[in-house]
Specification:
Largest sheet of chain A: 5 strands, parallel
Number of strands of chain A: 5
Helix content of chain B: 25-40%
CATH class of chain A: Alpha Beta
Number of helices of chain B: 12
Oligomer: heterodimer
Number of domains of chain B: 2
Shape of chain B: globular
Strand order of the largest sheet of chain A: 1-2-3-5-4
Order of helices and strands of chain A: HHHEHHHEHEHHEHEH
CATH class of the largest domain in chain B: Alpha Beta
Number of helices of chain A: 11
CATH topology of the largest domain in chain B: Rossmann fold
CATH architecture of chain A: 3-Layer(aba) Sandwich
CATH architecture of the largest domain in chain B: 3-Layer(aba) Sandwich
Structural class of chain A: alpha/beta
Low-confidence stretches of chain A: none
CATH superfamily of chain A: Thiamin diphosphate (ThDP)-binding fold, Pyr/PP domains
CATH topology of chain A: Rossmann fold
Distance between the termini of chain B: 48 Å
Strand content of chain A: 5-15%
Number of strands of chain B: 12
Strand order of the largest sheet of chain B: 2-1-3-4-6-5-10
Largest sheet of chain B: 7 strands, mixed
Largest interface: A-B, 30 and 28 residues
Number of domains of chain A: 1
Mean pLDDT of chain A: 96
Strand content of chain B: 15-25%
Mean pLDDT of chain B: 97
CATH superfamily of the largest domain in chain B: Thiamin diphosphate (ThDP)-binding fold, Pyr/PP domains
């Protein structure tokens, strides 16, 4: 549980008067561990040829990515302070043309995974060993392109690709038959189901992934909670896209102390 | 006569052996004719199946890591269905690449409206950093693909099923350049794709009636050769556009913008209006849409009527 980063997310939402807090809280533990312990990236050279690629396919969770990129030196205090401000580089969806360390413009759901397939295939064609990580939402898995990509990745044996699905229950609100692990297994992927807020389980899952240019692609289905860490906003209520008022802000920050 | 689609395969084979960054994705078409490329360039040819939006996103991903991608399948599926992927994954992100279509307009006449596509120019033109090339001979495709495939734009190559069959000086085939095929003084016909053939036949008939027609052929649709079009329209003051594209957002709209400052200029846009719902041969559907020698002769007669 990374309360410090969660507090920064809430402050950004208050500053920018916009943003998705619960969707960012459900993935912040995964992204922070990924950047801290696994991704090979260089904030001084974001286009480093040997880097690993991380694509946040559920672009509306970008606040989690922004605070982690800030922590790792890709972004400045000035960038963060100008979230959703005219002239700033950070908007409510990540923009690869503006933000150092962001690899894809996402926000329209269902684009990040197939785009990542192209990256993984292109790396393989050029005999490069970089790894490709993608994080998609469970609601995003309603998009047909996710399953087009699932089918293609398995058949092309893109073993240099690791997908994490944020299984925070959004999808099941609308479509209750939502056995995501079974669906991904049916598409021929290696599937691991974990608690997406447990550092031990996140690390164990990433440690188990055997990357190879030609092999079975991997998916970690991470059970998470929208708004994890703050009882006031946990779940699927009105907080999906809401800015806390002063009183709510105090309650949230108290919960994240 | 060799099909332009076969020329596409031949060009891929030749270029692929020279350029290790050329990679080809197809959506379950043309895979047999591309086998020589697949064999000569192992690991750079993929039939990704019937999932056009994913194919476009993947092609953009290939571009992201420095390859020169070619994505190829039937026009309506790769342009209309996959438009958002073209818009965001390629164009917004500033990634270059190549889309090569067959089955544009009503080339697949009998397959009906699900397999027709006559808004591709309009859609692709609406996006920044795009180019559209419409080669209606094998030579044009080969020359223009080699010239453009690794520049920093997204380029649509619309390969027609039928060719214009007109001899053209190959040295005149250059990206962004129109070709003045016949010089004339009374009326300018701007012809795109295979419609050049109808335009030439019409011009020959009009010559017998002592009407002097200038024919401008446009293998590059976007950007148009504004200079040549403006120069010709300034001379004739009468312009007819012949295109296998919907009139809304097609070549005619661009020509109208180019000539709008010319005093007294008249323009007739021969293109597709509404859906083409008939079955029949390509030639028959051209007749239905008014894209025929007769249609051009009628337009010339109409545009040459002096002002009252």
């Amino acid at each position: 549980m990374n309360n410090k980063l969660r507090r920064q997310i809430v402050d950004m939402v208050r500053l920018g008067r916009d943003g998705h807090i619960p969707s960012s809280f459900s993935i912040i533990d995964i992204i922070s561990i990924l950047y801290r312990d696994y991704l090979k990236v260089d904030h001084q050279n974001p286009q480093w040829k040997e880097r690993d690629y991380f694509i946040l396919s559920k672009g509306h969770g970008c606040l989690a990515l922004y605070v982690v990129l800030k922590e790792h030196g890709f972004l400045t205090d000035h960038d963060i302070a100008n979230f959703c401000k005219k002239g700033g580089i950070l908007g409510e969806h990540p923009d690869s043309t503006k933000v150092p360390g962001v690899e894809a413009c996402t926000g329209s759901l269902g684009h990040g995974l197939p785009f990542a397939l192209g990256i993984a295939l292109g790396l393989r064609i050029q005999h490069q060993k970089n790894r490709v990580f993608v994080l998609a939402g469970d609601g995003e898995c309603h998009e047909g392109t996710i399953w087009e990509a699932a089918n293609v990745a398995c058949n092309m044996e893109l073993g240099n690709l690791c997908l994490v699905v944020d299984w925070n229950g959004s999808a099941a609100q609308l479509m209750p038959k939502d056995d995501l692990p079974a669906k991904w297994r049916a598409f021929g992927w290696n599937v691991e189901v974990i608690d997406g807020h447990s550092e031990d389980e996140i690390k164990k899952a990433f440690n188990q992934v055997q990357f190879s240019p030609q092999g079975v692609p991997h998916v970690i289905v991470a059970k998470t909670t929208k708004g994890k860490g703050v009882p006031l906003i946990e779940g699927h209520g009105t907080w999906h896209h809401r800015i806390p008022n002063d009183e709510e802000y105090k309650i949230i920050m108290e919960a994240l102390r | 006569m060799k099909k332009i689609r076969q020329q596409f395969a031949d060009t891929m084979l030749a270029l692929g052996q020279e350029d290790p960054k050329l990679a080809v994705l197809v959506g379950d078409i043309s895979h047999f004719i591309l086998q020589p490329f697949a064999k000569a360039c192992p690991g750079r040819f993929y039939n990704v199946g019937i999932c056009e939006p994913t194919m476009i996103s993947m092609a953009a991903g290939l571009s992201k890591v420095g390859l020169y991608p070619v994505a190829h399948t039937i026009a309506p599926f790769i342009i209309e269905r996959s438009f958002e992927q073209i818009k965001l994954d390629f164009c917004y992100q500033g990634l270059p690449g190549n889309i090569i279509t067959v089955g544009s307009a009503f080339d697949y006449a009998n397959l009906g409206c699900t397999h027709h596509c006559y808004d591709d120019f309009a859609l692709i033109k609406s996006l920044p950093r795009t180019q559209i090339i419409y080669p209606a001979s094998c030579e044009e495709f080969d020359i223009l693909f080699r010239e453009t495939y690794r520049n920093d734009h997204l380029t649509l190559f619309r390969l027609p099923e039928y060719q214009h069959e007109q001899p053209i000086d190959l040295s005149l085939i250059k990206f962004g350049k129109a070709i003045r095929l016949i010089e004339g003084a009374d009326v300018t016909i701007i012809a795109a794709g295979p419609q050049l053939k109808n335009a030439v036949v019409a011009a020959q008939q009009l010559k017998k009636q002592l009407k002097s027609v200038e024919i401008i052929y446009i293998p590059t649709i976007h950007p148009l050769d504004e200079s040549m079009i403006h120069q010709s329209a300034s001379k004739t003051k009468r312009v007819i556009v012949v295109q296998e594209h919907h009139v809304n957002g097609g070549v005619g709209d661009d020509v109208r913008r180019i000539v709008m400052d010319i005093s007294g200029v008249k323009l007739i846009d021969l293109g597709i209006k509404g859906f083409v719902r008939d079955y029949g041969s390509y030639a028959q559907l051209c007749q239905v849409a008014g894209l025929s020698v007769e249609g051009i002769l009628e337009a010339v007669e109409q545009i040459l009527v002096p002002h009252p």
